[in-house]
Design brief:
The structure holds three protein chains of three kinds. Chain A has a single domain, classed as Rossmann fold, CATH 3.40.50. Chain A has eleven helices and twelve strands. Chain A has helices at about 50-55, 85-90, 110-125, 130-140, 160-170, 190-205, 220-225, 240-245, 250-260, 300-305, 325-335; strands at about 5-15, 20-35, 40, 65-75, 75, 95-100, 175-180, 210-215, 225-230, 235-240, 310, 320. In chain A, the strands form two sheets. In chain A, strands 6-7-8-3-9-10-12-11 form an eight-stranded mixed sheet, sandwiched between helices. Chain A has a four-stranded antiparallel sheet with strand order 2-1-4-5, with helices on one face. Chain B has eleven helices and ten strands. Chain C folds into two domains: about 1-45 and about 195-415, MetI-like fold (Orthogonal Bundle), CATH 1.10.3720.10; about 85-145. In chain C, about 60% of the residues lie in helices and about 5% in strands. In chain C, the strands form three sheets. Chain C has a two-stranded antiparallel ribbon with strand order 1-6. In chain C, a hairpin with a 6-residue loop joins strand 3 (about 155-160) and strand 4 (about 165-170). Chain C is elongated, with a radius of gyration of 33 Å. At the A-B interface, helix 6 and helix 7 of A face helix 8, helix 9, helix 10 and helix 11 of B.
């Protein structure tokens, strides 16, 4: 078992709206990422997966507020730290973050090398210009980007190239954890594939310690990460190895999600896509029982009343349901 | 196979934006024959000209060159009256349900417009309500709950279903669906697709699916047209094009989509 | 719609600006009902009377008298006639004629006057004293006559037959009249202007006229701008080109210069408040056109407009139902700015003497113009122009504040 680089225990964070209402976007989430491993987070829009990414980094700027729980990055507890201190001490060095529109963060009036200098100097003000250039060149070569990119302006690069450049620069300081939030969904499929290839290579080569990959596209997640965690309405509903999560989901929500996958492969036309009726609950006022209860095919009266906890299986999988693994499989077999 | 009737066809269809240095050829001399009752997908990446082509087919933008034939007749939309006639036969569902509605109009108004367009001006109120209720129940919505509401009070999936209810009332011969599920969560996507297909069976229309998602195109369509830089590079039945692609561009598109059953080959980029 | 209004009235900035504007409007409407004096009536003989309560002297004499023995009344009376500058001047004279400086106490009025009476002689020659200064001392000396007197003043009337003076009434130093019982008392809170007109009444009438000019000009400019912007943006093509040609033409000509030329060519005689409002409206529509056009172009390709077309609606229907409601909030904001800039434009024109002709109505700009021509600023007659400035500032400030508030409501990116 590898060294644990990021551990989160019972993290709860909320948004406070202009009218003072609380929205519990991340509700008692626990997770662990080991060295060399990758974790995928899947879920519909609004399930709290992007908020979780910000929360993991300790990036609490209004309206997002920290409530409870612990975030331990490589042995250091950063929960409750001032976000400005987090930005100085943690981001870049310990945790790197790539949002969906990262490529738009490049200043169009400056060359890429300037951006690289900024990043390095923010952590090491004495760094020498030439040394930075050489270091960047080396890194770019390792990740398969032409070093000439450094001398170009952002407008001269394509979207996919910009995104890969930003990713390369964000791992310059060899972060322990790389959090990628939909890094490829604004790109065309070919650029997406390049970004995915690069991220996988970064993890393989040890340029980043571990990876957290967030997306709503399950086929993508399946191809990138070792483990998959499915979120619904701010909570974890299922966690397990990627293959098991995709081909043998336990939670009824994950089951529905996996049943809606579309891939251009033989046999797709014979598959009947599953649909989940209804909409996720409003997190301003979440239901007291299971949050999936009102959309669930197998709902029981007690689901609506009592909160449902996480259960573990013998195989090390975790899911949130009142039914046992056996009961669920039985139910799925009967349709 | 029964004899296929051409429903919509085009020859040498071209759209050029701008002139001089800003001249862009969005659609470049495309020819096609779309058959009645089929689901046709036009697949392309962003900037391939698929949305411009859709707008030309709908008559929302002018054509620079070429002709469109509707049921064998050359399309003539030179006057507002002729346009209205044409739009009784061809309708659309757009990508973003949130921007497809006029937020100042109530849901009733959206549906009433459709009834009026099909010559229902003089119907008594009760008959109109009956028609709207029927349309809503087709897409699993309850008209009683929607009446006097505004579109923004619905979820994205419900709004898109209401769009389908609109088509149900309009009963066009051709429906152009421009990425109708790309802004919708995966769980609701199947519902939308099922309803579209149900609608096709119900009123026997032709659906032209515009999408960037080659998997989705494969799932829903009978014929697939692959579009690159304003041209159709490959077309044929869904199985032909997706399972046995001939053009390198099509091969690349299919290869670059993540797979789950087969190994996704990352070495080819 | 109701929802939007609720949101608007939650914005602190909007409420603040709106309250100021409503207060000004209420004052402008209610004041003339309470005090129906004609605003341009000349009531004062002379220029720039200071703000204050003016009590009729004649009526005071015949009003019932009350005796009030107030401590310090005499001191106040002396102080009002012998101020500290005069006392220092007296000391200066006394020192010059050889009185030791430490013997003179300028606070002790009785002692000072005693020294003065014994030592002042207008014939005394003091080295280096100008004639003007000497005349000042002679005037000062005359005014000191009877300063310490405690006896009553006698008011006498001439007997028409004998010509002798007959005692009419006696006014003791401790006599008071109740101001309420004096038949004629006039409050002039802001004094009078150069023509002798009550500044407050004039100011309120001027604010009303200026607001009218602002609203008329704002509505004209907004309607022209909105119509042209909608047409240019929605129809596009050659219509757009033609409209934009004229809009650009107006944009590059400095607005004030155009206003001055038009105002000048209309001529003094035909320049009424309405004419000025129309002229301002006709020269300031162009930026509304540009702004509306830009908004319409971004709306034109939205799906709901396409869908409305597909539903067979006419251009007029689409513009009125699918475009206009979306830009309504923006147009309201633009109109508020148009109104406030029209008020400023009127002030700018009038201060140059190109405003409405001066005989009929006052406007804020005209009041500034009069104050300037008659040197109110150099003479230190602040009441003739400061209140006008404050009124202009308040009106435009309130409108700009409303605009910012609306902007925050309609533009979520600006919310804090």
């Amino acid at each position: 078992m590898g060294k644990v680089l990021l551990e989160v225990r019972e993290l709860t964070t909320r948004y406070i709206t202009r009218f003072g209402e609380s929205v519990y976007a991340v509700d008692h989430v626990s997770l662990k990422v080991e060295e060399g491993k990758s974790l995928g987070i899947a879920g519909e829009s609004g399930c709290g997966k992007s908020t979780l990414a910000l929360s993991l980094m300790g990036y609490y700027f209004a309206p997002l507020h920290y409530m409870s729980g612990e975030i331990i990055v490589d042995g250091h507890n950063i929960s409750g730290m001032n976000p400005d201190d987090v930005r100085k001490a943690i981001l870049g060095k310990e945790i790197a973050y790539i949002p969906q529109a990262a490529m738009n963060a490049l200043n169009p009036t400056q060359k890429i090398i300037h951006f690289v200098e900024d990043v390095i100097r923010a952590h090491d003000p004495s760094a020498d210009k030439k040394a930075i250039y050489e270091r960047a060149c080396k890194l770019f070569e390792t990740v398969g980007l032409p070093p000439q990119v450094l001398e170009k302006y952002p407008v001269e690069l394509s979207g996919g190239m910009k995104q890969r450049t930003v990713i390369a620069v964000s791992v310059l300081l060899s972060p322990k954890v790389l959090i990628a939030d939909e890094p490829s969904s604004a790109l065309d499929v070919t650029s997406q594939k390049m970004v995915i290839k690069m991220i996988r290579q970064l993890l393989h080569d040890g340029l980043v310690g571990s990876l957290i990959f967030i997306t709503h596209e399950l086929p993508l997640l399946y191809n990138v990460t070792d483990d998959i965690m499915v979120m619904y309405a701010g909570q974890i509903v299922e966690k397990g190895a990627a293959r098991e999560a995709v081909f043998d989901p336990l939670h009824p929500y994950s089951k529905g999600l996996m049943g809606s996958i579309i891939v251009p492969e033989e046999g797709l036309r014979e598959v009947k896509l599953t649909a989940i009726p209804g909409v996720p609950p409003n997190l301003k006022n979440p239901p007291s029982g299971c949050r999936f209860a009102e959309r669930c095919k197998y709902v029981q009266p007690e689901c609506i009343v009592n909160a449902v906890g996480l259960r573990s299986t013998e195989g090390g999988r975790v899911y949130r349901c009142i039914f046992s693994e056996k009961e669920l499989r039985e139910a799925y077999r009967n349709g | 196979m029964a004899e296929r009737k051409v429903c919509l066809s085009g020859s040498g269809l071209t759209k050029i934006y701008g002139f001089g240095r800003t001249r862009t050829v969005a659609v470049d001399h495309v020819d096609f024959n779309f058959y009645e009752g089929e689901v046709i997908s036009i697949v392309g990446e962003s900037g391939s000209g698929k949305t411009t082509l859709a707008k030309m087919l709908l008559g929302l933008t002018s054509t620079t060159e070429g002709e469109i034939y509707f049921q064998g007749q050359r399309r003539d939309i030179s006057t507002q009256r002729k346009k209205l006639e044409y739009w009784k036969n061809i309708q659309a569902i757009f990508q973003d349900p949130f921007s497809s509605y006029n937020i100042f109009n109530k849901i009733d108004a959206v549906l009433l417009d459709c009834i009026n367009m099909r010559g229902g001006h003089g119907f008594p109120r009760a008959k109109k309500v009956e028609m709207m209720t029927e349309a809503c129940s087709f897409v699993n919505l309850k008209f009683e709950e929607l009446t006097n509401k505004y579109p923004f009070e619905l979820s994205g999936g419900q709004m898109q279903r209401l769009m389908i209810a609109r088509i149900f009332l309009l009963m066009p011969k051709i429906l152009i669906a421009d990425e109708p599920t790309s802004m919708i969560d995966a769980c609701s996507r199947a519902t939308i697709l099922d309803m579209l297909m149900g609608l096709r069976d119900e009123i026997g229309m032709t659906i032209i699916f515009i999408t960037h998602d080659i998997g989705l195109a494969y799932y829903v369509s009978d014929s697939v047209y692959i579009m690159e830089k304003g041209k159709f590079v490959e077309y044929g039945t869904a199985d032909e094009v997706i399972l046995n692609p001939k053009e390198p561009y099509t091969k690349r598109l299919i290869n670059d989509v993540p797979k789950i059953y087969e190994e996704w080959d990352l070495s080819t980029v | 719609m109701k929802h939007t209004l609720q949101q608007v009235f939650r914005s602190g900035k909007f409420i603040f600006g709106f309250s100021i504007l409503v207060a000004i409007l209420l004052i402008v409407i209610i004041y003339p009902l309470v005090i129906p004096d004609p605003p341009l009536a000349i009531i004062a003989q002379g220029t720039f009377f200071e703000p204050g309560i003016y009590v009729n002297v004649y009526d005071s004499i015949i009003a019932p008298k009350y005796t009030l023995n107030l401590e310090g009344a005499a001191a106040k009376r002396i102080a009002s006639r012998l101020n500290s500058d005069d006392r220092l001047a007296m000391k200066e004279w006394l020192v010059a004629v050889g009185i030791p400086e430490d013997e003179i106490d300028i606070e002790d009025t009785a002692l000072l006057l005693e020294l003065w009476e014994t030592h002042f002689d207008p014939k005394t020659q003091i080295a280096g004293m100008t004639n003007a200064r000497r005349n000042y001392y002679i005037r000062l000396n005359a005014s000191l006559e009877g300063l310490l007197a405690t006896e009553a003043a006698i008011i006498a009337v001439k007997n028409p037959t004998t010509g002798a003076l007959e005692e009419k009434s006696v006014v003791a130093q401790s006599d008071f009249v109740n101001a309420n019982k004096v038949a004629n008392v006039r409050l002039l809170p802001l004094g009078t202007d150069n023509f002798g007109r009550d500044v407050l009444t004039e100011l309120i009438a001027a604010a009303r006229v200026s607001l009218q000019i602002g609203f008329v000009a704002g509505i004209i400019a907004t309607s022209i701008g909105l119509t042209l912007g909608l047409l240019a943006g929605y129809i596009g093509g050659i219509v757009d080109d033609i409209i934009m040609f004229f809009t650009n033409l107006f944009t590059v000509i400095p607005g004030l210069v155009l206003l001055i030329l038009i105002s000048f060519s209309i001529g003094q005689e035909r320049r009424g408040a309405t004419t000025i409002a129309i002229v301002i409206g006709l020269t300031s529509w162009y930026w509304t056109t540009r702004a509306v056009r830009a908004q319409v172009i971004s709306l034109r390709n939205r799906d709901h407009v396409n869908l409305s077309k597909l539903s067979g609606h006419s251009i007029v229907h689409i513009i009125l139902n699918d475009i206009l409601p979306y830009i309504a909030s923006y147009v309201v904001m633009a109109m508020i700015l148009q109104i406030s800039s029209a008020i400023l434009a009127e002030a700018g024109l009038s201060i140059l003497g190109l405003g409405p002709r001066t005989t009929e109505v006052p406007t804020l700009g005209l009041m500034m113009n009069w104050a300037m021509i008659y040197y109110a600023h150099t003479l230190g007659k602040w009441w003739a122009y400061i209140p006008v400035l404050v009124t202009i500032a308040l009106i435009t400030f309130s409108m700009n504040l409303m605009n910012t508030g609306l902007d925050q409501v309609f533009n979520p990116a600006l919310r804090d």
